Amino acid sequence: QITLKESGPTLVKPTQTLTLTCTFSGFSLSTSGVGVGWIRQPPGKALEWLALIYWDDDKRYSPSLKSRLTITKDTSKNQVVLTMTNMDPVDTATYYCAHSDSTVGAFDIWGQGTMVTVSS
Amino acid sequence: AIRITQSPSSLSASTGDRVTITCRASQGISSYLAWYQQKPGKAPKLLIYAASTLQSGVPSRFSGSGSGTDFTLTISCLQSEDFATYYCQQYYSYRGTFGQGTKVEIK
Hints:
- The complex is a heterodimer.
- In chain A, 0% of the residues lie in helices and 51% in strands.
- By secondary structure, chain A is mainly β.
- In chain A, strands 2, 4, 5, 6, 9, 10 and 11 form a 7-stranded mixed sheet that branches. In chain A, strands 1-3-8-7 form a 4-stranded antiparallel sheet, with no helix packed on it.
- Chain A is globular and about 40 Å long.
- Chain B is mainly beta.
- Chain B is 0% helix and 50% strand.
- Chain B is built from no helices and 11 strands.
- In chain B, the strands form 2 sheets. In chain B, strands 2, 4, 5, 6, 9, 10 and 11 form a 7-stranded mixed sheet that branches. A 4-stranded antiparallel sheet of chain B has the order 1-3-8-7, with no helix packed on it.
């Protein structure tokens, strides 16, 4: 059974750097074709694709946020970390991590999400 | 970047109705399109991938069609548990993109 869970601060100040961790089980990020992505959703708004990392360390970023995002993986710990610099109140959102593999292609299993508020 | 236009943004329907939601991609994406259902306070749930492949465990009243730039999600006989927001997502390009969402409300 695949599960993912996001963790990190619930409140960050403007200009600070956000670090979120996705801890997963039921699969290995060293298996060919597997990826873990990050998606966010501001309150009452649509989903926004942020970043994705694959088993081979291929990394992909949203063009509009590329300069602020870094995604990394720690295969031994079954974790994926997303950092976002220079946080702004408009970055207030629920942040989700999700599993993907080459069989499905889309995000087939999602974490429960973690709400992050950006406020001074 | 590939843009996805989803319509309508909301619709009202009754239990038993047939409901159709569409997504249009700004360029051809073959069949690399997924549909998700999201209920308030919950994470999205994958319904359909590869434009028309039903994810395991999803009721057969959900179906998807299309390829290239135009795609459709159909709910053949709306049930009470189907009132939710639906999103499409393209995963053809190097980076994915979601549609703006369609909220299906009770008439």
